Predict the 3D structure of the following.
Amino acid sequence: MSAESRNRPCPCGSGRKYKHCCGKEAAARNRAPANLPPKTARATPITLPDGRAVSVPVAIQMAVQLHQAGRPRKADELYNAVLRIEPDHPDALHLHGLVAHQLGDHATAITLIHRAIALNPKAAMFHNNLGETYLAMNRFAEAIAACEKAIALQPEFPEAHYNMARALQGQGRLDQAVRRLERVLKYKPDFTAAQAALVETLYRQGEVDAALARCRQELSRHPDNLTLLCCLGIVLRKSGRHDEAIEHYCQAIARCPNEPELYNNLAIAYQSAKRPSEAAECYRKLLELQPGNDTARHLLNTLSNGNTQRAPKGYVREIFDNYAQGFDKHLVEKLEYQTPKILAGAIEKNLDPARQQLRILDLGCGTGLFGEQTGAFRGYLVGIDLSPKMIEKARERGIYDDLMIGDLVECLSVMDEQSFDLAVAADVFVYLGDLSDIFLQVRRILSPAGLFAFSIETVADDAKDYVLNPSGRYAQSGNYVRQLSEQFGFVVSSSVAVTLRKDQGEPVAGSIYLLQKRRENQDST
C-alpha cells in the first residue's frame, strides 16, 4: 500500500491514520503465515471494471483508498470482488461490514464483522467496530460486551473506551460514562468527540456549569473546532439561555462563515427564542451553502407559510432515530399521548364479533405503542417504519410477526392485494400532507370490508385539504378525509374529535377516524 494511503484517515472513522488503525492489524496478519489464505486463492487475479487484472492485496489497497476518499459504495465493489475470490478474507469481511454500517444496514454489518472476528478473534478494531454498530442500533449491552473485548486485547484503545462510554450513556449509567470519558481523554487529550460526549453527559447529570466550563476550556485551545462550537451552543440553548446561545453562534459564524451546521443550530436557537423571521433567514443561508438540503427547505417552509406534500424522509428518519431511546417515556408521560389507546378502543367498538383475529398492518409503528393495544383482536401483526432504531425498539416488544424498515407507500406497493384486515396509522399523517397515495395503497391491501383507522391533526378551515404548521407537522381537514374516502372506496364508520397530546404544554386538537372498505356492490351513499 502507498505511503500516502497509509497516512490518510482510516475508513473506519476512528480519526487515526490507517497505518495506526485497521492497517496496523492488516499488516500484522500479513506478517503471520498461519493467517494467510491459500496460495492458489491469493494468486487468483481480480478483474477491475476497466479490464485490468490485479492481485487481492492490490484490490484491498485500491478499495481502502476509495473508502478513505469518501466513496464507500465504490470501495464495497472491490471488497465484494475480493470476497468472491477469498470468501474468508478477514479484512475484506470487516471493511465490507464497515461499509454496510456506514450506509445504515447495521444488521448486515453485524453479520459480516462477526464472520471477520471468527476468522481473527484477536483484532481489537474488529470488536470495536462491532460495538459501534451495536450502538447504532441502541443495543447497548451488546455494544459494551464488544468494546470490553476490544479493550482486553488493546487496553489503551481510546475509540473502544469512547464507544463503551456512549453505550453507558445509553443505559443511563452517567457516572460510569463520565469516568470512562475522562479515561479516554488521558489517552487522547484532543479527542474532540469524547470532549463533546463528556460535556453532554455532565449536562445530563444536571452539572450545567461544569459542562459549560469544560466546553469553554476546550474551545480556548481549539477555537474553531466545529464540534465544540456546536456543543457549547446546544448546552446553552437546552439550558434555556437562548440569547447567549444566539450570541455564541453569531460569533462562531463570524469566524467560520461557511459552516452549514452553525446556521442550522442558530436557526434552532432563534426558534427556541420565538424569533421565526431570523430563523428563516438562517435556513435561507444554509440553503445557499447546501442547495440540496431537503430538511432545511422543509423547515423554511414551516416558517414562511409554505406548503408541501410531505416531510423529507431523511428528516423524519433522523427525528425518530434520535428520539427512539426515550420515546415511550417522553411521549406518554410528558406529552400525555393517548392516540394508540383511543384508536384501539374505536376499533374494538366497531369490530364485527365474527372477526376477532385480524391481520393488522401498523403503519409508522414506531416503538410499537399501538401494537401493544391490539391483544383483543390481534391475529397477525406487521409493522412498518422509516426509522431503524424505532423498528429495533418495536422488535424488543416481541409482539410483531414481521417488521419492515422503509417508506410507507413503497412498502405498501409491494404487498399482496387483500392481505390485511386492518391498517392503522397512529400519529403518522402529521408527516404527510397529501394522503392520496396512502389511501390508494391501503384500499388495495385491505380485505373486503377491511378497516382503516388513523389519527390526524385537524385544520379548522375545511376549504383547505392540508397545511404545514410551524411545528413542522401537517394537519388535514375533515372535508379532505371525506373526499379521499369517497374517491378511494371507503365509508366513514366513525370520526371523533380528540386531544392527541400536548405540545409545549398546550393541547393538540385532532380527530380519530375509522373507515371501512366499501364492498364492490355497496352503494356509495
